[in-house]
Amino acid sequence: MRHPRRRLRWSLTVVVAVLAALVSACGSAPAGPPVLTWYINPDDGGQAEIAARCTAASGGRYTIVTSTLPRQASEQRQQLVRRLAANDSSIDIMSIDPPYVPEFAQAGFLAPMPPAIEAAAREDRVPSSIEASTWQGRLVAVPFWANTQLLWYRKSAVAAMGIDMNQPVTWDQLIQAAARARTQFAAQGVRGESLTVWVNALIESGGGSVITNVGETDPALVQLGLTAPPGIEAARILRTFGDAGIAPPGFPTADEDTSSDTFQSGAAAFMVNYPFIWGKATSAVEEGSIPQSVPDDYGWTIYPRTAPDLPSAPPLGGINLGVGAFSAYPDLAYDATTCITRPDNSAYYMVSNGNPSSRLSVYSDPAVLAEFPMAPTIRDSLTQAKPRPQTAYYAEVSGGIQRTFHPPGSVTPGATNEAATALITAVLRKEALL
Q1: pTM across the whole model
Q2: What residue ranges do the domains of the chain occupy?
Q3: Closest to 49 (Cα-Cα) out of 28, 69, 61, 66
Q4: Which of 48, 210, 235, 384 could form a Cys-Cys staple with 389, CB 3.0–4.6 A?
Q5: What mean pLDDT do residues 107-129 have?
């Protein structure tokens, strides 16, 4: 009790010595390559396999690990936005649904793309994937895979209808043919993103646009084209579809999987849907749940036209790769995206997981053609596809369309367009909430 300061100095000396030893021991251990975290959408393991391939190809410069996001694109967006708004440095690479790319770019959530990476990202790509990766004239994300909807038909049913499916067909032609044959036309009528996809494709195919001043950053100045003639025509087609008696039962809640089941059962002679339905049918054959004659009866062609004299603008989906603005290793992350999207990895991903490539050359790959006999049609569809409205406020625009254009059978041309315009405009001006 007579020398408390001396004992305190001795104790502090011991603590400092121990800490110094620990620091020295840690410093002498190999640090290992940087770990890049890739936030992915759920799939059948393809992105994890590509991550392992690119880790090996890096020669020890980095390791890629994957972290799986929720299944719904809107929930993926929410999770990423929350993390990025908090300057989360764990997000090195992220798989982004194309409509949300402008929002991420405008918010400063994407790291600037090096010129060499941009040049590589533009090579061998379908035009629609480049358009969907661009914001205000700059490529801000790397195209990975690019999905599109085809018009599917039952060859046996169409043979009796007198329609030449080798020629472009319109929505009106198909609706009338299905009504005459008393068959169904499978489509996605659910109040969800697929409804926005449909509305946008109808408007774009008619020569219009949901947003007429793409690139506007002030929400109060965003101009909508929903009440223009192509928008009114889109509403008319939706109402005609609903009134024709060709929609499958439960149509207002039908999504892509529901439509696929209806078409596979033979109840529908026509369907608009993504190429996954082919793999679903061939897998069912392998499992013995349907005969080979079912997929043998599948035909496919380009998405229906809105106007007879204008080429259709098929829907565009897929995934683009963004590099997080707060990543500690943006250069390595961009290098990794170049590896992830290499032609061999893109072809592997299409064959193994059924997700079409953004690369044109992949559609002549023998393995791809063996798995997807409709690969050339997918390529052609992607070549003329158009993205959904490119805006930093896509969630508000899509939500407004879903609210007012649902169910499709209740759409009133003109009135519905005006209601959608009024709602979306009010939301963008912060005068209303969805």
Answers
A1: 0.91
A2: 35-145+317-383, 150-315+389-428
A3: 66
A4: 210
A5: 97
